[in-house]
Every structure is written in C-alpha cells, then in structure tokens.
C-alpha cells in the first residue's frame, strides 16, 4: 500500500506539469495499452501481473472497429492461483451521430472461473448518451449466442488447482448489454468505468470495472483500478465472484475524434 501511495503521489506531482499536445498519430486510429506487476517476498510469496491492449479504428464516417485483448496471472508460494485471458472485437455502423448498430465477438479463457471457456457472438443497437470534450457515455443492448464449457475444479489450501473435470459444452441464447463511461476532471486526471452483462439460461456473467488515471507525460499515465467479475452458476469448486485490483502504467495515443469504448 505504501508503494501504491508513493506512485500515486508521484503521478499527481508529475501530472501537474504535464501539458496536452495536439494528437499527431494516424487520424483514424486510437490505442491504449497498460501493464502492471507486483511481487511480495518474506512472510508471503506472491506474484501478480496484468496486461491490456485496446485499439479503435474508423473507416469513413460510418464504420468504427474496436478490438483488444487483456489477461492476468497470479501465483502464491510458487503455485498458479489465477490465470485468465480474453480477446474481443466489435464493429459499429453509425446510423446517426449518436445511434449505431453493432456486431461483437468475445472469447474468454479463465482457468479458475469454473468455465474452461466462454465465447459469445451478438448483435444489437447502441446510443451515445453524452458526447462532450470532458465526458463520454454510451450504452448498448443486443442478443446473440454463447458457447461455454463448465468444469469441476478441485483446489488445494493455497488456491492452486489439483484436478479439473470437464463437463459437457453447451450453447444458449444470451442478452448482451454494456455501458462505457469516461470523464476528464481536468487535462491530467480522468475516470474510466464500464459494465457488461451476458445473461443466458446456463449462466449470467456480470463484469464491472472502474479506474482512475493520472497523466505523467503526454502519452504515459498511472492508473489504479478494480474489476469485479461474477458468474451466477459456477460449477463445483469455483466461487461466483472474482475481484482484481490493479496499479498500472498506461501508454495511450488518445485521438479526440474517437470515443473511448
């Protein structure tokens, strides 16, 4: 905690001297990458790491493509106790300046969730509720199909998996809803929040995330965040809710013409 506080203080001090520069990257691209790592030794022996890559690309005035991947890894006393990765993509077609139609695909592999994989393909409509220089807020709702395979986990006292028993895979129809929010308090500090729900007969997965980002330079920032993921019907050996707290170094090429979904 002392390290987190020191880094946050350093970021705030540096941010006070950071100045915005005109965007000089490709006019139809925006990107964000972040990485975090922590390790403790002594009375406890733990290691954690996480990585995120996200990009947005526009084609003309009608199309926007969102794509990315993220993952995290954790170990305790030399045993793997968390391991997950996710890849996703979405195509938006702008019907008006605020209203759009989307098609999205997502694949998740979480070795400790009780599901060996969950994959979703959906389509629906979205709306940009707020679209100002300081605040962006959008919502979307759709429907589609999900493929998942549950597995029964047996864990040891540390939290490592001793055995996995795969169950039959299944396909169900899902309601897919999400919101994305970004607000800049000033030129150097902003809040990012998101929530997503995939609800079907076999499982309802809810994911919510919030982070505070403090700029240190024109492209580098520190971000502290929390992500909560809940599966309503996890198989035996898995708990329904996972929480991930992170402190990350962020590299961002922010294009003011592209919304931050």
In brief:
The chain has 261 residues and is mainly beta. Helix content is 5%, strand content 67%.
Features:
single chain; 261 residues; 1 helix; mainly beta; disordered N terminus; 13 strands; Porin; twelve-stranded antiparallel barrel
Describe the structure.
There is one protein chain. This protein is mainly beta. It has one domain (2-253): Beta Barrel (Porin). Helices cover 5% and strands 67% of the residues. The chain has one helix at residues 2-15; strands at residues 29-40, 46-59, 63-76, 79-94, 99-110, 115-131, 135-155, 161-166, 170-184, 189-200, 204-215, 220-231, 241-253. The protein has a twelve-stranded antiparallel β-barrel. β7 (135-155) and β8 (161-166) form a beta hairpin. The chain is globular and about 50 Å long. The relative contact order is 0.18. Residues 1-20 have low confidence and may be disordered.
Tell me roughly what share of residues is in helical segments. Answer: under 10%
How many E-type strands? Answer: 13
Report the mean per-residue pLDDT as an integer: 87
What count of domains describes the coordinates? Answer: 1
CATH-derived architecture: Beta Barrel
Strand order, sheet with most strands: 1-2-3-4-5-6-7-9-10-11-12-13
Q: Helix count, per DSSP?
A: 1
Low-pLDDT stretches: 1-20
Report the span from N to C terminus: 30 Å
CATH class: Mainly Beta
The arrangement of helices and strands along the chain is HEEEEEEEEEEEEE
What overall geometry do the principal axes of the alpha carbons give?
globular
In terms of DSSP E residues, the strand content is over 45%
What's the CATH H-level homologous superfamily?
monomeric porin ompg
- CATH domain topology: Porin
Oligomer: single chain
Largest sheet descriptor: 12 strands, antiparallel, barrel
């Amino acid at each position: 905690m002392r390290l987190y506080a020191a880094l946050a203080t350093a970021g705030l001090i540096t941010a006070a001297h950071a100045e915005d520069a005109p965007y000089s990257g490709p006019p139809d691209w925006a990107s964000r990458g972040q990485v975090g790592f922590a390790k403790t030794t002594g009375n406890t022996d733990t290691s954690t790491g996480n990585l995120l890559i996200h990009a947005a690309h526009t084609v003309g005035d009608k199309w926007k493509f969102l794509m990315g991947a993220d993952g995290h890894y954790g170990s305790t006393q030399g045993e793997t106790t968390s391991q997950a990765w996710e890849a996703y993509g979405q195509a938006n077609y702008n019907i008006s300046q605020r209203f759009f139609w989307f098609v999205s695909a997502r694949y998740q592999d979480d070795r400790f969730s009780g599901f060996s994989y969950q994959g979703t393909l959906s389509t629906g409509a979205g709306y940009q509720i707020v679209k100002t220089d300081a605040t962006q807020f959008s919502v979307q709702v759709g429907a589609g199909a999900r493929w998942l395979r549950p597995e029964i986990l047996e864990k040891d006292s540390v939290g490592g998996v001793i055995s996995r028993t795969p169950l039959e895979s299944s396909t169900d129809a899902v309601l897919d809803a999400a919101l994305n929010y970004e607000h800049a308090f000033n030129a150097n500090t902003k809040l990012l929040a998101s929530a997503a729900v995939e609800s079907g007969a076999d499982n309802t997965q809810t994911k919510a995330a919030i982070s505070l980002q403090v700029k240190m330079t024109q492209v580098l920032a520190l971000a502290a965040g929390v992500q909560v993921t809940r599966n309503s019907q996890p198989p035996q050996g898995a708990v329904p809710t996972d929480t991930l707290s992170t402190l990350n170094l962020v590299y961002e090429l922010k294009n003011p013409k592209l919304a931050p979904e």
